[in-house]
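Help wanted!
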Amino acid sequence: MTALGKLVRTTAFKLTLGYFLMFAVGAVGVLAFVGHNVRQLLDEENASIIESEITGLAEQYNSGGLERLVHVVERRAARPGASLYLVTTFAGDKLAGNVATLPLGVLDEPGVVQTPYQRNDEPEARHPALARIVVIPGGFRLLVGRDLDERERLGHVLGHALYTSLGLLAAIGTLGGLFVARRVLVRVDAINATALTIMNGELGERLPVAGTGDELDRLAQSLNAMLDRIGELMTGLREVSDNIAHDLRTPLTRLRNNAEEALRGSQSPAELNAALEKVIEESDGLIRVFNALLMIARAEAGDARGSMANFDLAEVARGVAELYEPIAEEAGQTIAVSAPEQCPVFGNRELIGQALANLLDNALKYGNSDVVVSVVAQPGHVELRVADHGAGIPQADRDRVVTRFVRLEDSRSRPGFGLGLALCNAVAHMHHGALSLQDNAPGLVVCLSWPSSVAHDVLTAAE
Amino acid sequence: MYNNIMRILIIEDDAEAAKYLVKAFAESGHVADHAANGLDGYAMAQEGQYQVLIVDRMLPKMDGLTLIGALREQGVQTPVLILSALGQVDDRVKGLRAGGDDYLSKPYAFSELLARAEVLMRRRTAHIGEETGYKIADLEIDRLSHKVMRGGVEIDLQPREYRLLEYLMKNAGQVVTRTMLLEHVWDYHFDPQTNVIDVHISRLRAKIDKGFNVPLLHTIRGAGYMIRDGAR
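Answered by r_m:
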């Protein structure tokens, strides 16, 4: 695209063009209105002048007859001015006046006419005139009129003014438009150039901000903020994939070892079967880890928001607690549920259920004590709490422990991958809520809370 | 123990996976055909007398959900089990909404697929859902009064234990897996992490089998559980 082509295609230029067209239409309208009004005014004035002249001449005729009238008309016709006079006989022969010729038949009908005529002093040129024709006794005709040249000239002047101003405006508009467009284009080109560098891998680059605070600056600032956020997410993702690679090596190695051992030496079918079962068990474990990771990723990306609906949190709390109750009983622990009869909330029942299952599993495994699940409906938000009286988590570790694959020292020996709390955290964020770990003195309270008004936001966003 | 041979159509574009499934179903005493793309699968499903369709979600020529929708529109009511690499909550919802009867995400254990396919087939052929009670050997449940009797003696069950037993009885002679139990008895599709279902089953077993000579609630190794008349 040529430089000019680029300029002409800019929004600034097109806007200028649009404004110009609007202004041109406006100017034509205003001038037409003014012209029409002035014309009307002039016409009225001419008509009244003609009326008074006729009244005057009629008086002269009444006092001095035709002879006097001819005399007065001759005198008046000799004066320079826009007034026209003509007195003719019944046959149309001119007796006096400054009108040389008129189109045929004009004098036949008395009344007001608009007609071209020729003057005595310049018989070549035809002029427009407004005239009134009066029949005098004896068949004589009297014509009194006004030359309309002035009116025509006014039209020309207005038209000329219109063309000149439009031409001037078009020139200024085009130049101004090109100038503004060029200024914008220079900045947009700068932004484009930076975007290209970013696309080519220079992820640290940021778009130029001129500091004028205009719309381009605001755009650049939002885009920069977006780039920052993407950068953070990518760093997070890189850490996650590093972690995945690191933490999945252990079970993969075990899997491989089992398979190798089964191949080695002469083993009985029973031993081979056992080895294969172990391989399946290990791969099932890996699948679970992948599923958990996918679920976390989905929840973090907010993908499951479409599957949110209204459900009863109290029912979920009782249901999941009941699911884990036999396990607790086997270990000599109890699970108590404190929830209202009903607690309608908006969210993803499956994910909230899974999060509660993770929390209960943790509380039973690491808390080693009785567990209390409570549902509290606060104004504006709901809380789902799982409390135990175990060793708790030290203040310093509480932020860290909700990230993927983080396991505290004394839990490393037990089965698990350190994904349970990470999932709870992602689920909380997906619901615009938060996951907080607090001291239960002794023990741990994990509180998953989210706004109950989220329903409206999500619903309106979906619409 | 399976008195019915299933005719199954597997619509799956991964030739290796399809070959494995055809062979595994044959070894379980069923007959399985294979279609490698959506269009062939659609034609075969319309013509053939299949009792269960196993449909992969991502298929060449016609994707799985479109295929199911088209079949349902044609009035083909054969139960469909959707297989998919997309295993998240909303994918499952989409799959079932499109007309699928069950959803299993990859990777899966064949025992899980088999158990689910058999339950789907049985549900089609015998309208078990409408019965007012079930009876296996001397174990009876009355679905109206929620009464459970074994050998003429009433057994007192917790509501959840009752629902667990009811689901097992409804699918008597069929393997039901742990995830099927979690789905149907607790209405959750998530991974319970620990052996929670096993503990519930052993509680139930203690109530219905303990003290009787013939156990009815069996553990099927590597697959799940089954209620059946031990004498058979």
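OP: Thanks! One thing I noticed: The CA atoms of residues 437 and 446 of chain A lie 5 Å apart.
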